[in-house]
Amino acid sequence: MVNMSAMSTQTLRKYHRSVVLRLIADGATTRTDLAQAIGLSSMGITRIVNELMAADLIVTRGKRTNDKGPGRHSAKLEIRPDGAFFIGATVSAFTTELVCLNAAGDIQCRMPFSCEDVSDADAVVEAIATALKQLLMAEGIDQSRILGMGATVAGIVDQANGLVTRAGYLGWENVPFAAKLEQATGFDIVIENLANAINMFSHRFGLANGYHSTLLVSGGTTCGSSFAQAGEPLRGHTFEAGQLGHTRVASGDLVCSCGRDDCLNTIASGWSVLARSNRIKGRTFQGAHTNQYAVALTELLAEDPSEVVSGWLRDAGKNLADATAEACLLLNPDMVLVVGAMAVSPDFAEGFRVAWADARLGDVSTKPNCEIDTAPDVAAAAHLAMDEFFFSPKLTLSRFSRADARSRLG
Ligand SMILES: [Zn+2]
Description:
This protein has 13 helices and 15 strands. The protein has 410 residues and is an alpha/beta fold. Helix 1 (4-25) crosses helix 3 (42-54).
């Protein structure tokens, strides 16, 4: 028979441990700070702190002022950077890259990986596993301290079941990506939609930190969005929330990947700029050509644009800003973050800023702050793993004591 009271004590302890770790990472540095923040007795806090120190996940810095009495609680606690590591893999038309973070959240190392046929999910998984092996070997990272891996995909992701239900440009449908990665790498895996992962990361460490809720809009080859409240993304009933690029604007001369000629994608995306400036063939978005679009867009953005192209980029920014203002009426965020390949274009950014400054939200909704983020962190995928397996009741300390036992045995 299951002992319910023993189980709930165990669960509660794991929960408290995860809160303690998060508070130490956020700068609550003494046992007294922790006891006050959580409302646990100092004995309870000391027990958790001792467990985390024995697992080499935290350290004390500075000297105690006193060996007995209240002063002994003033020793500063810090996350031990080499106490744990987290892997992140990003799979988008612009980036296929691995990143390894240490427990302090710093990038330890990173490495791009390539895969000839991204439409073959098994080939992508194999490319990730092979590159990861090379990276970990080259960097000499203690693999027993890797707590898990996060992977982000530009597509529709059923995060809870580890499925990529649809990723147009990859041609994937219902791919059990998490299970495949777990089998190939041996690590615990968490997967997420790329825009959601960047939004969650921005809430925790980036420009959206300190805000209540954030609408992230992206201008890449296509347009997309992610809305998160308190860092938790709104995924929708079938995980398809956030498809800002397919909202209806006005009929035009380009046809979106969905078959319509009136989607925002036809007037605000990087692909629409490429098509209008004749940098690509055809007037209809072809999902299978997304990687070519990404390459062409990257080239276009690296150039000094002609007056005509700069006009198209400004228009794209303006059109995305107008659609963003409409979405704010539905979602009422206090922060709008603009990301994506086009965010680096001064023309696109100016078009967005001017239109955003003019946007009135019908005078019925408070206008959120707005920031254009030209360098959203490449480590968002690895941070998913940090949240899922470190600042989480899923963290099991026994894995570290086993490692200690093995090393003691020689
Ligand atoms: Zn569409």
